[in-house]
UniProtKB/TrEMBL annotation:
GO cellular component terms attached to this protein's record: cytosol
Organism: Halorhabdus utahensis (strain DSM 12940 / JCM 11049 / AX-2)
Gene: folD
The protein's name: Bifunctional protein FolD
UniProt subunit comment: Homodimer.
Catalytic activity as recorded in UniProt: (6R)-5,10-methenyltetrahydrofolate + H2O = (6R)-10-formyltetrahydrofolate + H(+); (6R)-5,10-methylene-5,6,7,8-tetrahydrofolate + NADP(+) = (6R)-5,10-methenyltetrahydrofolate + NADPH
Length: 297
């Protein structure tokens, strides 16, 4: 039976540990400030943004909540980004993804000042990550590195298989696990919808990161004994509950726990870490922009 990695607990310890860094900034009269921009009426996106706002309040980060009608012209979003870029009080800007289809996502990412891009999605920050000189590690993969560390799993020399090649998770995760640095040095395979015989790849893995967005697509038959399973999927499936749905991951938890040594649950695994690392990047951004050497956890 697998150990269940408690993402809520690790995320809480990161929020607690950010206190010293935030105090150091406050001593210099800097209140770290994050602007979240939501251009969507997707209920999941609304939930994530509201949780991010609550997290900011908990640790003492000022949160600015910008909402744009999803039917508004793209220029409304670009104008808002320009305004936030120019606002010296704003240290971090996060545009919640996905944006509506009529908005060019790449243009949005390029528009954000790379020094305020606390998602780490601007091409300049992606380039720095690939070069091994990350300014802001993207939140989900960074959080996964810390979960692996907390579980005592060192990727060095291990075979890591990532299922999903998204810009938010799959691609940056592959880079971080590959890098010649702590939390890296793995041999990495990135699988996707065109991969032949996915099960053969996942069975050969010591670490599986499931980030395909397909409910319970990876089950115990696709895993080897002793594997570490990181489930990034957060899928709302219809269920007879108060909310009318339940959250399930990309991994079939019950059968996977029979094989894994350690596994993240959904909810309460990777999701809280995504939010915690956003706070981390915002505090880091405030320090960099004000020349304050902050003691990051
Ligand atoms: N600009 C960005 N957009 C998106 C990102 C991102 O990193 N930056 N990632 C994903 C989703 N995401 C962040 O916004 C996210 C997903 C899940 C959670 C979370 O805390 N999940 C909870 C359950 C929440 C619930 O009840 O629904 C959990 O897993 O325990 C936070 C953030 C897409 N967009």
């Amino acid at each position: 039976m697998a150990d269940v990695i408690d993402g809520n607990a690790v995320a809480q310890s990161i929020r607690d540990d950010l206190g010293d860094a935030i105090d150091t900034l406050e001593d210099e009269r800097v209140t770290p400030t994050l602007a979240t921009v939501l251009m969507s009426d997707d209920p999941a996106s609304e939930t994530y943004v509201s949780m991010k706002q609550d997290d900011c309040a908990e640790v003492g980060i000022e949160a600015i909540d910008v909402e744009i009608d999803p039917d508004a012209p793209a220029d409304e979003l670009f104008d808002e980004i320009d305004r936030l870029n120019a606002d010296e009080n704003v240290n971090g800007i996060l545009v919640q993804m996905p944006v509506p289809d009529h908005v060019d996502k790449q243009a949005v990412l390029r528009r954000i000042d790379p020094e305020k891009d606390v998602d780490g999605f601007h091409p300049e920050n992606v380039g720095r990550l690939v070069a091994g000189d990350a300014r802001y590690k993207p939140c989900t993969p960074h959080g996964i590195q810390l979960l692996l560390d907390d579980a005592g799993v060192d990727p060095e020399g291990k075979d890591a298989v990532i299922v999903g090649r998204s810009d938010i998770v799959g691609k940056p995760m592959a880079n971080l696990l590959l890098q010649k640095a702590d939390g890296g040095n793995a041999t990495v395979t990135v699988c996707h919808s065109r991969t032949d015989d996915l099960a053969a790849k996942t069975r050969a893995a010591d670490i599986v990161v499931a980030a395909a967005g397909v409910p319970e697509m990876i089950d115990g038959d696709m895993l080897s004994e002793g594997v570490t399973v990181i489930d990034v999927g957060i899928n709302r499936v219809d269920a007879d509950t108060e909310k009318g749905y339940e959250l399930v991951g990309d991994v079939d938890f019950d059968s996977a726990t029979e094989k894994a040594t350690a596994i993240t649950p959904v909810p309460g695994g990777v999701g809280p870490m995504t939010r915690a690392m956003l706070l981390y990047n915002t505090v880091k951004a405030a320090g960099l922009q004000h020349g304050v050497d902050v003691p990051l956890p």
